[in-house]
Amino acid sequence: MVSKPLTPHINRSKVRRSFGSSVHTYDAHAVLQREIADRLLAHVQCAKIQPRRILDIGCGTGYFTRLLVQQFKKSSVIAVDLAETMVNHTRSHHPRRLPWHGKRLHCTADGCSLPFADASFDLVTSNLAIQWVDQPDIMMSEMRRVLAPGGLMLFSTFGRRTLMELRQSLAGISQAHAGLVLPFPDVMTLGDILHALPVEIPVVDADLFTLTYPDTMALVRELKGIGASSSAIRNRPGGLYGRKLLRDLDTAYASQHRMEDGKLRATFEALYAQAWYKEPTFQPAGEIIPIMPEA
Predict the structure, then answer these.
(1) Along the chain (295 residues), what's the average pLDDT of each consecutive run of 10 residues?
(2) Any residues with CB less than 8 A from the CB of 185 and at least 6 apart, and which?
(3) pLDDT score, position 220
(4) Hey, what domains does the chain have and what are their CATH numbers?
(5) Which residues pair with 111 in a beta bridge?
């Protein structure tokens, strides 16, 4: 499969620094992220899987990792993140496990190049990390690669309608500024990528959330607090935090997306994707020649 970027070229070093610098503010602003994590766990529970080894990619401050640890008390859980400061935070804030419970390990790793052998895990998860890679198909292929036969890969990501009001308002200022918001993938794109992998029963579904803010600065402050910096996008036309741009944005956003109570609305779409990897069936070499009965 030929890999084509679904997003603008993303500077992974800046992504690492941006999320690393937000380690102490992330949880205060990540209400929606925790809600999506809870719903992702519900998908795991519906699968009725009992994994011995679990990999959580893009663990951040560790909220979803903790949900997995609580759900699968005897499983070994490995949590990885691109930002070392996030990994250190998650490690330090996890309570110590009892000796008869499963093992837990945290390490720095890139989801597009996982440092694990093939077929190492029974469950591979990721909550809201895959949108921060240029080529999601590569990360999804890596998730499948480290998945053992009979295992499940399951992840969430923001969908195409996420921050559509912000994108429209920025486009009203200039088309170049509209590129400050990532063009998140849609259901069909994720479905096509999953169907191209050697997996079974791929499923993608979606939730739509509407959040409200008193002004655009509150929205921008929340995005900055969780490390979602537009500076990670290569060739961007300046950042999202310049004073003039913020003034223009506030006017454009309020004129188009102010609600009756005076607050500004912002749409977020969460996509949940899952697929099973079943052990390949044996195919004998050669071709099948039908034997016709004698007349």
Answers:
(1) 52 65 72 96 96 95 93 94 82 57 78 96 96 90 97 97 93 78 89 94 96 92 74 49 80 93 95 87 47 46
(2) 6, 131, 136, 157, 159, 160, 271
(3) 87
(4) 12-277 (3.40.50.150)
(5) none
Structure tokens at 260: 């009756």
The per-residue pLDDT for 292 is: 46
Cα-based torsion angle of the residue sequence 217, 218, 222, 225 in order, rounded to the nearest 10 degrees: 70
Number of CB atoms found within 10 A of residue 210's CB: 10
How far is 164 from 167, CA to CA, in rounded Å? 5
- Residue matched to tokens 């996509």: 271
Q: pLDDT value at position 242? A: 67
pLDDT at 291 (0 to 100) = 45
Question: Which pLDDT score, from 0 to 100, does residue 279 have?
Answer: 62
